[in-house]
Write a structure and sequence with these properties.
mainly alpha; 78% helix; 167 residues
């Protein structure tokens, strides 16, 4: 695994300013950014700034893609429970990416990623439980209405199975 970026050891305010300058400059002008950092007392070369900038640009691109995927999920799934399931799967996939890409020495980041993954798993289970509950209630209501209309018990059972089939 390559050594950790020197820029990641800089104070947060310096990194944020560098990030803003990288974005504003279209991820170019690395020599000028290295000079700016040197003027602030940080010894670093343009190639290090370029590597950091490329990593930042990739992270921003992954966030953009994830956002587009989420928007596509919303559009495709409408108001169904499929949206929640798909969103949870997308989040879990991204968290696995974070875990895989993280520095194994950064225990705090690994712990946060693992905790977020566990939280999404719990949320996914809760969503499925709620869906089963709602579908069960819908099946009961459909069965009650079927009995009221005098439909045969076999047909009533078929209606219940059809309603609960989405669970």
């Amino acid at each position: 695994m390559p050594p950790r970026s020197k820029i990641r050891t800089f104070p947060e305010d310096v990194r944020r300013e560098l990030d803003a300058r990288l974005i504003a400059g279209g991820f170019g002008g690395y020599a000028a950014l290295a000079e700016w950092l040197r003027s602030r007392g940080f010894e670093i070369g343009a190639s290090s700034v370029k590597r950091y900038g490329a990593d930042l640009e990739q992270r921003i691109e992954r966030i953009r893609l994830a956002t587009e995927q989420a928007e596509a999920l919303v559009e495709a799934a409408g108001e169904t429970g499929a949206l929640a399931d798909a969103s949870m799967r997308l989040i879990q996939e991204k968290m696995w990416d974070v875990l895989a890409a993280s520095d194994e020495k950064d225990v705090k980041a690994l712990s946060a990623a693992a905790r977020a993954l566990a939280d999404t798993a719990r949320a996914s289970v809760a969503i499925r439980q709620e869906r089963r509950k709602v579908l069960g209630e819908a099946a009961e209501a459909a069965g009650t209405e079927a009995r009221r209309l005098g439909i045969s018990p076999d047909f009533e059972a078929a209606i219940r199975r059809a309603v609960q089939g989405g669970a």
